[in-house]
């Protein structure tokens, strides 16, 4: 123990700094040892300070106790000290308190403090839920230990006695916290303390156990507590301040600091955290239900009969608001029982009781291939319930039952996404997509295959190789295990193999080009080589892929299924079905139906026209202007100048109708945008700036540079990001060339990229721009087929502007 002076807080700060420096060395003993050392250090300083202030032993009538992190011996490097000075009513306590608190404040140490008599402590514990949870964790530091024990016992007794009247507040507060902070297990940047499955949930379980309503947390929860605390400890130490949200850019450093052979990078850290948080979340949900059921009845309620068992389905009953098993139900004799229980829970919205889950986990065998028809029917009933499916599958998975049904699930369980546009772990993403697909089943002729395909479309992730190819092989095995017909297995495999075909084609190819339609149809026909009726089966596959594209996008994250992407995919689907079975194809109308009027206005006076149309999530900006080199970059730059973030873009050219400037070609550019700050700008101001850019009176380059400097970070960014990349795709049949840029988004990026293409002499036919979180995938249709040397020059220019970062202010 570092020797401290007689209560000088500066000595405490120095000693704490040395501990943190040692904790960051290669030879430190880990975050658990660091927490223990920090607790011992603060205990020693506080007890020394109390001794210096004359706080005596067990008969002094004054005691210092710790609550919160220090009380639990879980003190992270920058956690506040939560201290309570207890006294029996004697005078002079305020002076002692000031002499305890002020040195800590002067040293800049975070402090939450109070001075209480035993009666006041019990009173605040009965009226303030947060204070009550803290006082349950009282730990004696110095002074009268008898007084500390008296208060601890009285607070716990009051907690148990008042539980029935305050349980609803506990449950409501917990659910509000979950809603506010999200899931630790599935957030890309989780709140380790307040999120669903975080440290506060473990404290809740401890509090319910103290009330003697549930058992103490299981060893699995204890292991999860240790990991969450270790990560939070290293996060504090590396950040140099209190921080509970693990940001993506900090995850690699935290993983390295943990020095664990099981956690070597941020992806392994995310997977470990997901598993730990799911264990805590499940325990908290079950604990709340068990605690509610265990509450003692009083008054007339105690005279009521015990809850009856109400039949819900074969072998399934409702008891005390939960789904349970009938007394004679047997999973060994009834292969569909697990799935019937799950489907019933999803259909009724009732949770499966913990006892039922345990009983099923102990007795349910793996289903033999082929599955009984009843089991497959119950699976489809479960998957078809939509959002209610999610918590039910989570419950099955926590007890090992879902993996028993789907052995392939282990590779994707808790697997973190590699793309920041994804907000869920891969397994949760699959379930979310399935829930979205349940809303689209009436759009397809094979809703059963849509639900299964949605559940399994990314099952190939977490293994070596292209996940679509690996997934195709896996779902063939699963389809056979389900007992599907060979033709249905082929359709299911084709869904998984080509689940990205529609969104990639629609956003990176010209869907108006008949060659695009032919290419997609050829791909789908090749996927079903044994079909006796190829056109019919391909039409079914088109419907399935169309619905899956929508469900997959919505289940990925906010803003991915944009109005423009929806229009592009629907246009592609309509053309494919028209080609296959003659269905009438109606081209989806433009976002702004007045585009023809805008074209006429441009031809009348040569000035650009700008229209805004607001949508549910993304606004549409339509611009018409004379077609000339530089038009695209000019419009993109002006939009960036007005703080509009471009999510999608489409460029078309209305050909000229004769000679003369008034009859010349007009470019119509349509952008899906959202404001980076505030609301949408005035279209008249956007048009005015565009006119000034086109006539040379506004220097767009300089204006954008100022804009980028204004919103650049105040310090240089140290975040490690993947370098931008350019890909080329060719269609030899039509001579079309597609340049695809993958990189990181920033203000004005589209302007800089299109300007680089224009400087290289590239003639843009069309553009598809997608912003996915902080990443972009921008595709540009290029006229002609540049040779290898020209492509290298174009690529060099694009990468130069895509790699550039604005200087810090």
What's the topology here?
Elements lengths: L8 H15 L7 H22 L9 E6 H4 L9 E7 L5 H14 L4 E6 L1 H10 L1 H7 L3 E5 L1 H17 L1 H19 L17 H12 L8 H21 L8 H11 L7 H29 L15 E4 L2 E4 L2 E4 L11 H12 L5 H10 L9 H11 L5 H10 L2 H5 L20 H12 L9 H10 L10 H16 L3 H12 L3 H8 L5 H14 L6 H21 L8 H19 L13 H11 L3 E5 L5 E8 L4 H11 L2 E11 L11 E10 L7 H13 L4 H11 L14 E7 L4 E9 L4 H11 L4 E9 L2 E8 L5 H16 L6
Parallel strand pairs: 2-3
Antiparallel strand pairs: 1-2, 1-4, 5-6, 6-7, 8-9, 9-11, 10-11, 12-13, 13-15, 14-15
Short description:
The chain has 809 residues and is an alpha+beta fold. The chain contains 31 helices and 15 strands.
Keywords:
809 residues; alpha+beta; 4-stranded mixed beta sheet; 4-stranded antiparallel beta sheet; 31 helices; disordered N terminus
Distance between the termini: 44 Å
Percent helix among the residues?
Answer: 40-55%
How is the main sheet built?
A: 4 strands, mixed
User: What structural category do the secondary elements indicate?
Assistant: alpha+beta
Structure annotation, total helices: 31
Uncertain residue ranges: 1-7, 589-593, 713-720
What is the tally of beta strands?
Answer: 15
Content of β-strand: 5-15%
Order the strands across the largest sheet as they lie in space. Answer: 3-2-1-4
- Rounded to an integer in angstroms, the radius of gyration calculated over CA atoms is 32 Å
Name the average pLDDT: 86
Shape: globular
What does it look like?
Helices cover 51% and strands 13% of the residues. The chain starts with 8 loop residues before the first helix and ends in a 6-residue tail after the last helix. 45% of the residues are buried. The protein is globular. The chain has a four-stranded mixed β-sheet with strand order 3-2-1-4, sandwiched between helices. A four-stranded antiparallel β-sheet has the order 8-9-11-10, sandwiched between helices. It has 809 residues and is of the alpha+beta class.
């Amino acid at each position: 123990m570092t020797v401290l002076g007689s209560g000088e807080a500066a000595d405490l700060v120095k000693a704490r700094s040395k501990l943190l420096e040692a904790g960051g060395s290669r030879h430190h003993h880990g975050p658990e040892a660091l927490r223990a050392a920090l607790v011992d250090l603060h205990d020693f300083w506080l007890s020394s300070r109390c001794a210096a202030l004359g706080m005596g032993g067990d008969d002094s009538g004054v005691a210092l106790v710790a609550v919160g992190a220090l009380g639990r011996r879980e003190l992270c490097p920058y956690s506040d000290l939560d201290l309570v000075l207890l006294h029996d009513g004697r005078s002079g306590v305020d002076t002692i308190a000031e002499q305890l608190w002020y040195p800590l404040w002067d040293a800049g140490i975070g402090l939450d403090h109070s001075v209480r008599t035993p009666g006041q402590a019990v009173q605040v514990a009965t009226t303030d839920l947060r204070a009550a949870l803290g006082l349950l964790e009282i730990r004696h530091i110095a002074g009268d230990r008898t007084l500390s024990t008296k208060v601890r016992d009285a607070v716990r007794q009051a907690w148990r006695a008042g539980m029935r009247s305050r349980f609803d507040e506990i449950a409501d507060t917990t659910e509000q916290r979950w809603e506010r902070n999200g899931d630790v297990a599935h957030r890309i940047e989780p709140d380790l303390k307040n999120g669903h499955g975080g440290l506060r949930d473990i404290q809740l379980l401890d509090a319910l156990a103290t009330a003697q309503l549930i058992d103490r947390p299981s060893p699995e929860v204890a292991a999860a507590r240790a990991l969450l605390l270790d990560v939070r400890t290293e996060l504090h130490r590396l950040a140099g301040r209190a921080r509970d949200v693990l940001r993506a850019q900090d995850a690699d450093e935290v993983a390295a600091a943990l020095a664990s052979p099981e956690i070597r990078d941020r992806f392994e850290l995310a997977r470990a955290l997901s598993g730990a948080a799911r264990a805590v979340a499940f325990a908290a949900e079950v604990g709340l239900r068990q605690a509610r059921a265990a509450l003692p009845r009083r008054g007339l309620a105690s005279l009521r009969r015990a809850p009856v068992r109400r039949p819900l389905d074969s072998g399934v009953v409702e008891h005390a608001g939960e789904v349970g098993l009938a007394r004679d139900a047997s999973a060994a004799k009834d292969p569909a029982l697990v799935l019937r229980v799950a489907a019933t829970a999803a259909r009724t919205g009732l949770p499966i009781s913990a006892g039922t889950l345990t009983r099923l986990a102990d007795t349910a065998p793996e289903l033999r291939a082929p599955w009984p028809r009843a089991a497959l029917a119950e699976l489809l009933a479960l998957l078809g319930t939509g959002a209610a499916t999610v918590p039910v599958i989570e419950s099955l998975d926590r007890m090992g039952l879902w993996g028993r049904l789907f052995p392939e699930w282990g590779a994707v369980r808790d697997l973190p996404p590699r793309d920041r546009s994804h907000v869920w772990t891969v397994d949760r993403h699959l379930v979310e997509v399935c829930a979205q697909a349940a809303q689209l089943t009436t759009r397809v002729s094979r809703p059963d295959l849509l639900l299964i395909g949605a559940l399994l479309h990314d099952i190939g992730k977490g293994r070596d190789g292209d996940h679509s190819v690996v997934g195709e092989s896996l779902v063939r095995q699963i389809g056979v295990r389900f007992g599907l017909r060979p033709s249905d297995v082929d359709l299911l495999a084709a869904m998984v193999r080509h689940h990205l075909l529609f969104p990639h084609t629609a956003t990176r190819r010209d869907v108006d080009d008949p060659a695009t339609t032919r290419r997609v149809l050829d791909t789908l026909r090749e996927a079903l080589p044994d079909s006796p009726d190829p056109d019919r089966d391909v039409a079914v596959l088109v419907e399935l892929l169309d619905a899956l594209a929508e469900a997959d996008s919505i289940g990925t994250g906010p803003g991915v299924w944009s109005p423009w992407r929806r229009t592009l995919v629907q246009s592609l689907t309509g053309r494919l079905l028209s080609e296959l079975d003659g269905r009438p194809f109606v081209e989806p109308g433009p976002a702004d139906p007045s585009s023809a009027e805008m074209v006429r206005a441009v031809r009348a006076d040569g000035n650009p026209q700008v229209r805004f149309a607001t949508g549910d999530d993304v606004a549409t900006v339509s611009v018409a202007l004379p077609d000339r080199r530089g038009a695209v970059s000019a419009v993109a730059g002006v939009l960036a100048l007005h703080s509009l973030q471009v999510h999608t873009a489409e460029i078309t050219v209305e050909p000229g109708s004769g000679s003369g400037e008034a009859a010349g070609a007009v470019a119509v550019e349509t952008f899906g945008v959202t404001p980076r700050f505030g609301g949408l700008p005035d279209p008249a101001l956007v048009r005015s700036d565009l006119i000034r850019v086109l006539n040379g009176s506004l220097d767009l380059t300089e204006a954008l540079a100022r804009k980028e400097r204004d919103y650049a970070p105040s310090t240089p960014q140290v975040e490690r990001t993947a370098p931008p990349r350019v890909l080329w795709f060719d269609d030899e049949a039509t001579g079309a060339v597609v340049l695809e840029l993958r990189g990181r988004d920033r203000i004005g990026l589209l302007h800089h990229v299109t300007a680089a293409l224009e400087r290289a002499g590239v003639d843009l036919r069309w553009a598809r721009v997608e912003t996915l979180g902080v990443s972009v995938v921008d595709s540009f249709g290029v006229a002609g087929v540049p040779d290898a040397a020209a492509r290298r020059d174009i690529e060099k220019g694009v990468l130069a502007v895509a790699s550039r970062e604005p200087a810090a202010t």
